[in-house]
Amino acid sequence: MSRSIDYGNLMHRAMRGLIQDVLNDVRENGLPGAHHFFITFDTTHPDARLADWLRERYPSEMTVVMQHWFDDLDVTDTGFSVTLNFGDAPENLYVPYDAIETFVDPSVEFGLRFETQDDDAAEDEPESSETEPVAEEEPEADKPEAEVVSLDSFRK
Question: In 3-state terms, what secondary structure has residue 18?
């Protein structure tokens, strides 16, 4: 029986841990400077908690913004809860990390996207329900050409 390293799952956990660390820092110290977050999550996730009227309005996914006003941020190992203002109506949400589809901080052009393979994937692709993480640090159009640098050039 052969064993292999599950890089997809390891990246998935690491990226969720990064979100947890960032939110813990914001909970303790507030948002620094111009930082703010756009967080898109799956509203159908069984552990996601949101008001019925929000679930009706956003039946599959929802993007929330944490910027000028948010309250009661609580960060756990499985997700976070926060009270946000929806048209002068404060609502508390609970978002499991596994429900997050994108986490973006546009102030520094940083973003994480968690992709899943759809059930209607091409027949020649293996079926998988595993989430595949994709890290984006800047928009594709703005990325410079990649340059390969040998580690030997840094050795003395």
Answer: helix
pTM of the full structure: 0.70
Rounded Cα–Cα distance for residues 83 and 93 (Å): 6
CB atoms < 10 A from the CB of 71, how many? 10
- Average pLDDT value for the chain: 78
Rounded-to-integer distance, Cα 34 and Cα 133, Å: 26
In whole angstroms, what separates CA 154 from the centre of its chain? 34
Tell me the Ramachandran region of residue 67: left when phi exceeds 0, alpha when psi lies from -120 to 50, beta otherwise.
Answer: alpha
Task: Give CA separation, 35 vs 57, 65, 80, 109, 146, in Å.
Answer: 27, 11, 18, 10, 27
CA–CA dist 51, 89 (Å, integer)? 11
